[in-house]
Amino acid sequence: MPTTTRPNPSELSLSYLKSLTNIEDIQECLRILDLEENQVDLNLDEILDKRPQLENELDKLKVLRPQLGTLHSQAADLLNIINGTSNVAERISAQVRQLDLEQSRVQQTIKQVEDVQELKQCIMGVHQAIYIKDYESAASYINRASILDPKILNGEFAEIAVPSSEYPDIPTKTLSDAKGNLFEIFSKEFDLAVKVKDENNISRFFRLFPLLGKETEGLDKYSKFVCSIISGKNQENLAEIAVGTNFYGYALLKLYENIATIISQHQLVVETHYGQGKMIRVIERLQEECDKQSRIILDIFCDERQVSDIKIYNSTPKKPLGPQRPGQPRDIDNMPDPRELDIILNELAMISARTHLYYQFIEANVDVSLIGKDIDNYDPTEIIRISGLSKQLKSLMGDFLVMEEYFFRKAIEKAMKIDKYEEGNITSSCVGDVFYILRECLTRIISTSDIECLTTMVNLINHSLEVDYITMFQKRLLTAFATTEPKDSKIGYMILLNNLDVSAEYMRQLISELLALSSPINNDNSEKAQKCFSWLNTNTTNKFKQILMSGIEQLFAQIVKPRIRPILQDAYKDIKYVLNEYEYHEQEANDGFAKRVVLGFDSLVQIYQSTFSENNYNQMMMYILESVTSMWEKTFGSLRFDKDLRAVTNYFSTKMQWPFRDRFTRLNQISMLLNLESLSEIHDYWGSTTKSSNTITWRLTVTEAKKVIGLRIDFDPEEVSKLKL
Question: Alpha helices of 465-613 — where are they, by DSSP H?
Fold first, then answer.
């Protein structure tokens, strides 16, 4: 029998039921209809159960019907009242708006009439003031008229009401003519006051230009006036006889002071009458005048000091300065005198320092003028950066670097050429001479206040020290033993090493002093200057120490070390460490080993102690000490060993300042092992596989320790070998 899909109750339409032919489908549909009928009955029963409640609610609503009717009637009455009130309010509002409009028109008319009256009064007043030469009032009338609404000035009403038989032109033309007339008068009077140096009239008419709207013209005239003051004073200064080494430096300083005085005294006046930031225009004109006057001073300076003639060294190759080779041409007349060069360099340093101080003053005053203005559109350093003074000074400082390098290298050359050693000193004369000049050069370069110049000069000085100073020491070290007696050669060699040691120390001290002296450098660049000096210190001292250590090592290896073993061998002669009681007490009384050690090493180190610098002497003693301990570790003894070791330790403690006792650690441990009372006592010091040791840090290996203990003839070698350490 085929299966059919069970239908939903909603699908049991009449047509569907009529189409059924299968008894099972019919029965199934009947069952579904029965279930649906039962559900409908249940729903009807629930609705009928709620009927009383619904009827009660309907009764309550019927009670409210009369009240709703009353409310509806009252609402209609209220709506009529509101509509009437709204109509009245609308009529009143329209009337008020009309009144406001009429009132505003009346006020505008009154204002226009008043402005026209003000305009007419200003026109009449300005002409009367001009006639009686009351220029302050005339300028005030022009200023009052200029702040009126342009619509009033150009309006038909003003063109009709203002002209009169006396002043028939339209207001704008009348005012323009009056303004032009006043400007011409003010200009002539200002120029006349400048000519006769009438400060009152200069100040009087300078303040009147802004009232005419002629701020730019007024500032330009004022700038021209103050520039003429600067020019006149500079000419007076240059008219004096050039006396002294810093004449042109002081002339430039006076120029800067005159400009600074004008800016300081007049800035408040300018910005009070012309507005904030207007002083910048005057400063720009002053800087242009400063460019002209400073060029005059610096050009005369270059001519008088013959700076262009001194720059000859600029084209020479940077090679080590040294004695002239035979046949090598040299134009002595063209070589500058270092003493004259020193004077010129000091004056140039002064010029640079004063100029940078002037730069800071100008930038600070521009910053003050820009307070409250849009600083993003104006760079305070722009005035200086594009100035002719800045460009000329930069060129001069390039010449300064060339001359300073030449001066320094010539000073090194001369110091090395006249270098001599006087007995009793630890260095030769060249060290003090070179570092005196180095101090002068670096102090001078700091005083320029020019960070770019400083960094360049430090690089040049570093190069000169390497090529002309350090390299010369290297060459002399290589040839120290080739030309003189052995003793003199040795002393000469040690003096060269002292020169290197003291040079490194002088450099460290000098840089420390210079770091404290770098205050002339602008705060923004002080860190850069400190890094530059620190680099010079590190670079040069490392080179000094590198050559120094190599030289001391060579001196020790070739001359000192071969004499150490014979001293020890001589000290050990007739010395026995396997002694009976009588022999022990005899050696205890004679103490021959210690005496021979002291005598031998005194003879060895005497010349180094008297000649070497403290650092070099201690370094040499460290090499000797390492060699002695290395040799002695291979020479084992017994009962006398500990005392001999103490004697040698005490000897070196009287000869050295550096710490050295750690060099004897292995020997002290060897002595400790040689003086054990019993074999088991080693575990108290060293420890064993079952017993930990104390805090001693052993420098000997287990094999070395057993080898040392095995030297004791009273210990069984087999037991020694079985020790578990």
Answer: 471-478, 486-517, 523-555, 561-572, 581-590, 592-611
Nearest Cα neighbor of 460 from 436, 438, 430, 431 is 438
Mean model confidence pLDDT for the chain: 78
For the ranges 1-5, 89-93, 396-400, 700-704, the maximum mean pLDDT occurs at 396-400
Concatenated DSSP letters of 612-653: S-HHHHHHHHHHHHHHHHHHHTT---STTHHHHHHHHHHHHH
Distances, alpha carbon 206 to alpha carbons 99, 212, 318, in Å? 50, 11, 59
Q: Which residue has the tokens 């210079």?
A: 514
Q: Would you state the structure tokens that stand for residue 96, as one six-digit string? A: 């008020």
- Asked if residues 238 and 297 have their Cβ atoms less than 8 Å apart, the reply is yes
What interhelical angle do 199-208 and 247-274 show, nearest 10?
A: 50
pTM across the whole model? 0.67
CA angle 649, 652, 653 (to 5 degrees): 85
CA 445 to chain centre: 19
Return d(Cα 232, Cα 161) in angstroms, integer.
Answer: 54
Identify the burial level of 443 via C-beta atoms within 10 angstroms of its C-beta, where 0-12 means exposed, 13-18 middle and 19 or more buried. middle
- Tell me how far CA of residue 536 lies from CA of 319, 359, 524, 604, in angstroms: 20, 29, 20, 38
Report which of 366, 382, 389 is spatially closest to residue 263, judged by C-alpha positions.
366
Compute the average pLDDT of residues 196-218: 86
The mean pLDDT value for 364-371 works out to 71
The tally of CA atoms less than 13 A away on the side-chain side of residue 560 is: 28
Amino acid at 600: G
User: What is the C-alpha to C-alpha distance for residues 489 and 479, in angstroms, rounded to an integer?
Assistant: 9
Token pair 């930990």 is found at: 692
The alpha carbon of residue 513 and the mean position of all alpha carbons in its chain are separated, in whole angstroms, by 20
